[in-house]
Fold these 2 entries.
Entry 1:
Amino acid sequence: MSTSGIDSKNLAVVVNDNDPYSLEIGAIYVKERMIPTSQVIHIFLPTGVSELPVSQFHRIMRDINKKTPKHIQAFALAWTTPYRVGCQSITSAFAYGIEPGLCQRSCKTTRLNPYYARGDIYRPWDQLKLRPSMLLAASSIDQGKSLIHKGLSSDRSAPKGTGYLMITSDPVRNSRAPLFEESIRSVGNKFKLKIIHSDSLSNAQDVMAYFTGLPWVKKINTNNFLPGAVADHLTSFGGKLTDSSQMSSLRWIDAGATGSYGTVVEPCNFIAKFPHPGLFLTYYLRGDTLIEAYWRSVAMPGQGLFIGEPLARPWAPQKSLLKGGASGAKPMHGQESSQDPDSEGASQAPDGP
């Protein structure tokens, strides 16, 4: 079995022929990443809507399954909307199908991702019957082009950047803070990580990772995000890309990040529903692509939306990747937050842009 992981030879690009953004960004991505035309799948989705009905999704997936070559291990979805299927993110729906009853279990634990912390899985479809998926989402065609350029320019760049782990004043959305010291220990001297006690980071010129927890994050445009950088904020509706009452995850892409993540419906502040910084960086630093490292870092991604340039690979694959090692990362059970789930509700007012 191949241990090369996800790359242009086994990634399919799905294009919405009804969407001018999708047509242009999809074509650019296919050309720049040299993806074979046999791996481009054309479908017809409604435009200008955030949600795709479950019944329509089932019909579309039947068509996609017929068109998808058997060797495909992951999907790049070349659009920004729709970003959800019922109460589920469209990236998790494409990855492993519909998770029944998610609307009734919004603030409860959800399906455990079998790819989570599995550094030994290189062909997720062949081994797990799961195709990690990521939206090539941006607020405009120009921003989409910039996103693709950021991903391409990150490849094997071995950036000397910094990862910023923010401990904020928001006690509910700050639930990942207990993971930060552990993340520093797991990364060791392979990469510089800083724990910052603040609600914002400003004028940092070397941002390679930015993990925080707030409904709105200020001053992000003052920072310089290096090619391949990832940034996300733990809050309820960051994954509502175009109609959120909180900061959309697209703001990170507009600011220069190459990848981000957010939830599309109220998840409550379960740590397991958001990226684990230490796991993400462990896999990214060993040479995984963005889509691999990000998907491996979320235990329960049913409500979570992955956006970015999936094939960005800032660090060249290490021998441990090629030989099947997990670089010290081990499978973990999803962790629940001890906070009252209702305290992460939509009724909380944002604290300003």
Entry 2:
Amino acid sequence: METYTLADQTAIVTGASRGIGKVIAQLFASEGAATVLCSRSAERIEAAGEDIEQSLEDNCPGEVHPIECDVTEATDVQALVDATVERFDGVDILVNNAGGSFDEDGKIHTVSGDTWDRSLGVNLTGPFLCSREVIPPMAQTGGGSIVHISTANAISGIGLGAYSAAKSGLYALSRTIAVHYGYHDIRSNVISLGTIMTEQRQDRMDNPPTDTHQDLLAEYPLGRFGWPEEVADATLFLASPRSSFVTGVEFPVDGGLTAGISQQFHQPVANVEDIPRRSD
């Protein structure tokens, strides 16, 4: 008889309409979890839910429940968690995956206040709001696991200023949750991603073609970028009882990128020799 790792578990996956979040949600459902997936777009999240539902085997106990939710809005997040608890009698797993960068982001002296606020909103405030809402029901039903999706940028200072700073905040948030709520058997961990080949990433590489990604590829000891399925596998490990004694850690899924990055990539990409001047 087939064993499902997340049977009888309820999971919320944010930013699950596409890319990494959708692959995580699909894996969780295939492992038997009642999986609540959310996105700001009702149309996209409904379509993602249908795709995942159709992919499940007939005997799989997992199911999907798409909900429209803007994780930066406290009322939306509260409604998301309330609906999950009402339908499934609790929540066992939260994956704070929703996030992203903005075209206006860049070096700190060029970042506007609006871009800074938007980046903090989706990459740090959203995970805070979701974590704040799930912690009480988790504690009341015997604990749970929270997994935050971050980036290698937040560890080594690669990339966009506002995005990297906001994602770095997830480490402190996660450690605080681990320390404050471990007594209630609530675990909290962060996954630090390298470059992952989502459809969005592929589009950025192809339109227009750029040599930047080839330069970055040279920084990876494994000689390649990662795949969403590899992120999902790591997330499943941290969400499941298989990691029951793991909490408060930062888990790199980056192909060795942060094991010893050189300056050869980000010196020319970030134009570090340019003299900073105030924006007009």
